[in-house]
Write a structure and sequence with these properties.
The protein is mostly helical and 96 residues long. The protein has 3 helices and no strands.
Length: 96
């Protein structure tokens, strides 16, 4: 029985030696193709995303919504962000 296990181990090693480089090459080619598809995020869009995170965070420190002022926080911090991204979404939809 040990002779059969040794033969299967040798076959597995040979298959690993020949198949592993082919699998690694396919993954590298797929990564290269993904990065070439269309433009990335522009500087203005990155700035808008950063502002979308900073605005509610700074207002949370100022308004302290955990002290029962959550409705004011919702209208002042989250409302303008949802409105701005909604207008942007509609604008880019008409543009395309």
């Amino acid at each position: 029985m040990s002779g059969l296990m040794e033969i299967l181990l040798i076959i597995a090693l040979i298959l690993g030696i020949f198949m592993l480089p082919r699998l690694l090459n396919r993954q590298q080619k797929n990564e290269i193709q993904r990065t070439d598809q269309g433009p990335g995020l522009s500087g203005w869009k990155r700035l808008a995303i950063l502002a979308s995170f900073l605005w509610p965070a700074l207002l949370a420190l100022y308004l302290k919504p955990w002290n029962s002022h959550w409705h004011i926080f919702f209208y002042v911090a989250v409302g303008p962000i949802v409105l701005a991204w909604g207008i942007s979404w509609v604008f880019w939809g008409f543009r395309k």
